[in-house]
Amino acid sequence: MMETREICCVICPMSCNITVKAEGRKIISIDNYSCPRGKEYAASEYLDPVRTITSTVRAIGYKSPVIPVRTSKPVPKDKIYEVMEVIRGLECSEPFNIGRVLVENVLGTESNIVLCND
Amino acid sequence: MKMRNHSYDVAVIGAGPAGLAAAGAAIEAGAENVVIIERDFRPGGILEQCIHVGFGLKYFKEELTGPEYAARFIAEAKKDGVTFFLNTMVLSISEDGRQIRCINSEEGDITLEVKSVVLSMGCRERTRTAIQIPGTRPAGIFTAGTAQRYINIQNLVVGKEVVILGSGDIGMIMARRMTLENVKVKAVVELMPYLAGLTRNRVQCLDDFGIPLYLSHTITDIQGKKRVEGVTVAKVDEKGKPVAGTEFNISCDTVLLSVGLIPENEVSKTCGVTLDPVTKGPIVDNTMQTSVKGVFACGNVVHVNDLVDNVSVESRIAGAAAARFARERHDADDKVVTVNTGENVRYVVPQKIDLNSGVEKVEIHFRVRQPDRGVIIQAVCGEEIIHSHKCQIVNPGEITSVKVDLDKIRNGNADEITVRVIKEGNDGN
Questions:
Q1: B393/A contact by beta carbon, under 8 A
Q2: Helix axes B66-79, B308-327, angle to 10 degrees
Q3: Is residue B58 within 8 angstroms of chain A, CB to CB?
Q4: Contacts of residue B181 in chain A, CB cutoff 8 Å?
Q5: Three-state SS for A94?
Q6: B190: how many CB neighbours lie within 10 A of its CB?
Q7: Which residues of B touch A8 (CB under 8 A)?
Q8: The pTM is what?
Q9: With 60 as the cut, is the pLDDT of residue B131 above it?
Q10: How far apart are CA B318 and CA B369, in angstroms?
Q11: Which of A73, B102, B150, B294 could form a disulfide with B156 if both were Cys (CB 3.0 to 4.6 A apart)?
Q12: Phi, psi of B61 (to 5 degrees)
């Protein structure tokens, strides 16, 4: 069955509302974009939307009660809440270095949960 | 206690992104000793609590979190030998810009002797008082940035059910942040018919989580005695006045305000810097020098930016100019051109151009009054159009800029130019 979806492009301030038509994972058409980057974004946002997740974890011996963490690269959008559950269970003590890996390959996403402050 | 040096070439006030970039640039431009005075316990400024990604796409071509972006500048400033006075509050600057009075709990009341100053104190949030929301005065009303600091640094939850007034970036980012922490964000309410912040934040912070956005609406009442119990929301007309009969109630225990930022210029005023009534920041020239010789300003203390990347670029100009001034004090009045705001331009920065500043092109940043599409951005000198380019879209939420060639101003022999945004097909020719 064909699905039509409007995707608001976030690549530039134009914010085009791009129309994607697809059957399952097969894209039939992409319309109403203004540049190749928008077309590419709409396709990837339709097929495999990803987001970088940032949050904080409890930090023992740090200068504030929590330290910020992020996923080292974007993870599938539908995994946001599951990754948040993993982050919620974390705790961290020294060393506090940017990029230090707390969880490798979180939930098989090939993204690590890393510290993002020191 | 170790006695610190109290004499510096360049003093930078505030260790946020603007101050850090200015200090680094001052050292690179040859200043020998540079001090940053910061009231918080660590450098980094507001970036320390902005744990979301989106910083550095322009400056580093990477998508960084706020703390990661700040850390790069902190590391560079430390490597360059910049002195940091942390936990230190600046009280005033002398009218000649040569003395800075500040206070901290180690040394008490101290005065630094300096050759030039960079103002980089950033901005602060508008509050409920600033926008006069009627209703009771219960606990549970925060600015978005205060809530951000509570959650991201102090690990405190602000409430369970939230309504956000204002579609500024911080408000939308907090909507996502709280949703991820299992707080229910019931609505974002925006007075204007368009979004105040960046579209990507609407998509990734509101749409992703199904948070309703009410444009052309406002909060007309806050209920609750000890704690917020709910708000009344109403549609507004073109003048921003609530329309009778459109009211509806939303129950909530927390209201966040993301209703604009104002440059923080209490310290600037102590040395008599002239402020722009629209930006609420110092009037600056293209070297970021204020109306007081040797006092420079950069970042959100000048005008509220939407991207930190632009702040870093602008602040490097200020830092380098402050270093130059420290080396060769320059009190003469130069040939200065005023930049005026024309059609659909709310403000410009810089507001002045020093034709002898040693550069050939100057980038003028501005915000439009109204969103528009299919426009021409022009710089006009007397009768002559000295710059013109087409632009597909302009938006009050996003700073636009125009680069002008100083030779063209010199040729025009005028003492002012005007920046304007006109409809395509109506270019005045």
A1: yes
A2: 20
A3: no
A4: 55
A5: coil
A6: 25
A7: 199, 202-203, 207
A8: 0.93
A9: yes
A10: 27
A11: B150
A12: 55, 35
Q: Which amino acid is residue B243, in one-letter code?
A: V
Please give, rounded to a whole number of angstroms, the shortest distance from the CA of A26 to a CA of chain B.
Answer: 23
Picking from B40, B72, B180, B395 by the largest number of A CB atoms within 10 A of its own CB, the best residue to mutate is: B180
Select from B118, B108, B127, B116 the least CA-distant residue to B21.
B118
- From A13, A64, A70, residue closest to B154, measured CB to CB: A64
The answer to whether the complex's ipTM is over 0.90 is yes
For chain B, count helices (H), then strands (E). 9, 27
Handedness of CA B230, B236, B242, B244 (dihedral sign): negative
How many beta carbons lie within 10 A of that of residue A31, not counting itself?
11
Instruction: For chain A, say whether B71 makes contact (Cβ under 8 Å).
Output: yes
Q: Is-contact B221 B209, C-beta < 8 A? A: no
Examine the pLDDT at B3 and tell me if it is beyond 80: no
A contacts of B151 (beta carbons < 8 Å): 56
Number of H helices and E strands in chain A, helices first, is 2, 10
Which residues, including other chains, have CB under 8 Å from residue B64's CB and lie 6 or more apart? B53, B55, B56, B72
Q: Cβ of B41 and A8 within 8 Å? A: no
Taking the C-alpha atoms of residue B175 and residue B256, their distance in angstroms, rounded to an integer, is 9
Question: Which chain A residues have a beta carbon less than 8 Å from that of B203?
Answer: 8, 10
Model confidence over B349-402: pLDDT tens digits? 999 999 888 889 999 999 999 999 999 999 999 889 999 999 988 988 889 999
Q: How far apart are CA A3 and CA A26, in angstroms?
A: 10
Separation between Cα atoms, residue B353 and residue B351, nearest integer Å = 7
Instruction: Measure Cα distances from B268 to B22, B140, B275, B292 in Å.
Output: 17, 33, 9, 10
Select from B27, B17, B6 the least CA-distant residue to B319.
B27
CB contact under 8 A, B154 and A65: yes
Cα B93 to Cα A97: distance, rounded to the nearest angstrom: 37
What amino acid is encoded at A100 in this protein? R
Structure tokens at B401: 């800029």
Which residue is listed with tokens 């540049």? A35
DSSP string, B105-135: TTTEEEEEEEEEEEE---EEE--HHHHT--B
What pLDDT shows up at residue B427? Answer: 54
* Bond preceding residue B350 cis, omega within 30 of 0: yes
Closest by alpha carbon to B182, among B209, B148, B202, B164?
B209
Assess B68–A contact: CB distance below 8 Å, yes or no.
Answer: yes
Per residue in B10-45, pLDDT (tens digit) is 999 999 999 999 999 999 999 999 999 999 999 999
CA gap B220, B131 in Å, rounded: 11
The end-to-end CA distance of chain A, in Å, is 50
At B163 the three-state DSSP class reads strand
Nearest CA in chain A to B156: A65
